[in-house]
Amino acid sequence: MSDPAVEAPLGPDGLPRCPWALSAPDYLAYHDEEWGRPVHGDDALFERLSLEAFQSGLSWITILRRRPGFRAAFADFRIADVAAFTDADRERLLADTGIIRNRAKIDATLANARVLATWEPGDLDTLIWSHAPEDPGPPPHTVADVPAVTRESTALAKTLKKEGLRFVGPTTAYALMQACGLVNDHLETCAARTTP
Fold it and tell me: How far apart are CA 5 and CA 192, in angstroms?
């Protein structure tokens, strides 16, 4: 059984927040304005999927602070544009200090764009959102109540891999689900939980 709800720590404005949101100003803005809010659109979801893959093994703040560099390097994550990247673009990315220069992750992002460019518009959005839990269950009372992997994220990762996408394990898939609002993992007492 979960612990009883505990009051989330207070942010600079006196409102309660999830504890991780208060560790850096970048986190606070991301927590309040983006995390857990519904994201739709193939390009927008491709961006989140790509950034979650780049985050694997790193802290999210590292990715968040380099997101402008990622967007510039990857043509704002427009699937059609990234799918058309050449070997010269790949070399440019490998030399770009504004992003994470991980060869496997860069190659996966390019390969994923090429796969997604063959899909019909809206297919990625439909596929991802079809894995939103039907019953989200009770809100988390404490950080310990927030899972790293769920049945739905495992199924989403399996489906994405079956479709030819790379760097999408169950943990990455769940982080995507959290970031894009398929689940709401703001703590029960967090002010952002019910903010529209």
Answer: 16
